[in-house]
Amino acid sequence: xxxxxxxxxxxxxxxxxxxxxxxxxxxxxxxxxxxxxxxxxxxxxxxxxxxxxxxxxxxxxxxxxxxxxxxxxxxxxxxxxxxxxxxxxxxxxxxxxxxxxxxxxxxxxxxxxxxxxxxxxxxxxxxxxxxxxxxxxxxxxxxxxxxxxxxxxxxxxxxxxxxxxxxxxxxxxxxxxxxxxxxxxxxxxxxxxxxxxxxxxxxxxxxxxxxxxxxxxxxxxxxxxxxxxxxxxxxxxxxxxxxxxxxxxxxxxxxxxxxxxxxxxxxxxxxxxxxxxxxxxxxxxxxxxxxxxxxxxxxxxxxxxxxxxxxxxxxxxxxxxxxxxxxxxxxxxxxxxxxxxxxxxxxxxxxxxxxxxxxxxxxxxxxxxxxxxxxxxxxxxxxxxxxxxxxxxxxxxxxxxxxxxxxxxxxxxxxxxxxxxxxxxxxxxxxxxxxxxxxxxxxxxxxxxxxxxxxxxxxxxx
Length: 462
Ligand code: BG6
What we know:
Number of strands: 19
GO molecular function, one term: hydrolase activity, acting on glycosyl bonds
CATH topology: TIM Barrel
Helix content: 40-55%
Radius of gyration: 21 Å
Number of helices: 15
Family: Belongs to the glycosyl hydrolase 1 family.
Bound molecules: 6-O-phosphono-beta-D-glucopyranose
Active site: 367 (nucleophile)
Pfam families: Glyco_hydro_1 (PF00232)
Protein name: Glycoside hydrolase family 1 protein
């Protein structure tokens, strides 16, 4: 049957998760502590309903049933992350055999069910001991990360062909060093830029380690949260503000990993304000040589920006917001259940930008999704009737289809997320899954959207 929206052959249909958010078993199987385990001990009140990362959705024990469910709803691919502190407790030294067995089992089970594993190496979960040494501010941690990445390729590269160095590497920079929503809760732009720079360096070293191994058909990439910056108007001030926001929040990482260098305008701006991170000369050639094969794009909502109304006080601490103000566009469509804007065309704009300015790099939507608070209110006959989520996905898929029609090199669509999971300080507040999870009993129930995506995946369109 011909569909109005048919996707290319072998399109990747699936979803994404991360280790800390689904595994649970935080103190089991020889896992070391990561910053989330530590921060929760320190300040449980900063987590929604004081729910911490120790149990989450128990994938560690239930992965077989969960993978069977993935198969049942039509997944042909699935992204998860390896927990650094589970694989190498303390972040350096000996590899934890129980963790190797666990990840081997997950990979084998996925493949046995016809689901391609996409493996991400870092999703916000720095081993605590390494954070104590300065985390990404410390170049030694950068080296240790590259060793950890190499260990993963050697352990799992015979079966895993799609590798990602980081998920949303800018989020720990923003959360941990600028806006105080991740540990270590530092607010200092100069240190934030150092962390960002070292993350790019860590990425480049991990790509270099990948290139020295011959992983048959292997591809290495990164997952970036790209938030297109739209100016309030055509006025120069608004346009400039949007361009600067784009430099800080998108191009900082995107240019470095796809084009091999940081945007000149960003370097000049940081230099002018005395905010450049320290670096070593040979880093430039390393970053330039290690460009990715595959880009994951996480897209939730755009950034709306206008020119600054009041110039910043030069005595105040430097922040990216010195150069633009946020702007709530009147009449914008909202996901009121989460408080985020919905702008489906954003996904198209991102992909066209990748085609026009980034060599049409092979890409896929690695996260897109709709968070909903108190989602049980939509329960009827024992199932969550998440028609809003179906509409949300459809709206984005239509624009993605349009981008593909125009020649964008887009290979797949993964939803955030497979099943409801624990989300950092928001814990279980916003539900995103195709599958609902009863946090008390851990019972899984497919939502309406799970049935819908099954049909879409099987028919490769809708
Ligand atoms: C994504 C992250 O950006 O947002 C996920 O990669 C996170 O890890 C998701 O869970 C949803 O966030 P929130 O705050 O709405 O629960």
